[in-house]
From TrEMBL:
Protein name: ABC transporter ATP-binding protein
Pfam family, one: ABC_tran
Keywords: ATP-binding, Nucleotide-binding, Transport
SMART domains: AAA
Domain of life: Bacteria
GO terms of molecular function: ATP binding
Ranges of residues in domain ABC transporter: 6-232
CDD domains: ABC_MJ0796_LolCDE_FtsE
Amino acid sequence: MARTIIDAHKISKIYNQTMVPVKALQDVHVHIEEGEFVALVGPSGSGKSTLLNMMGGLDKPTSGSVIIDDVEITKLSENKLIDFRLHNIGFVFQSFNLIPVLTSKENIGFVLQLQNVPKKERKERVMELLKEIGLEDKIDNKPGELSGGQQQRVAVARALASKPQIVLADEPTANLDSKSANKLMDTMAKLNREENITFLFSTHDARVIKKARRVITLVDGRVDSDVQQTPI
């Protein structure tokens, strides 16, 4: 029996930047089991990116709790939360968030360096991932020398470098053509199967949704449906 690795319990998030408070999430309860491959979908403004940020500890809910691998991250201090994310969660952002002055190998190895992984082991892991994403020939290229699709693949490799338990990806295929998007999803599905990494995607992209084994739909900050499916 699979264990619950993420438990977002009765999450609500209210933003008060304007005269009228915005209820981004309303009493959302979602649990994700270890090794799942899940798409979080819904129209713009439905709350899917907000929920993803809560699950990754990038933002805190107004009420409710997020428990990851039996650790209630909503109660951690900022320093402990940073350390927890570093060792347990990989992030893929729509805007890539690569460091402009670093090469592909340096961007991918950055998290490993923060974790004090020995140089030899770091190099081996980076090369393994560059081969996995088909960018061995771009090892010394900086982000500005790569296409959008190549930058996104480097961003995914960076998220996977430390072999996290969980990868959270916000619109991972938004900047990719169909061939690149399908290759990227196939790579992540392979790593999901072989390394049992839990993947959760926030997406509008039908190419991502059809490859998910579970689809959670948010509408107006609430869970509208939660269904299992056979990936295509």
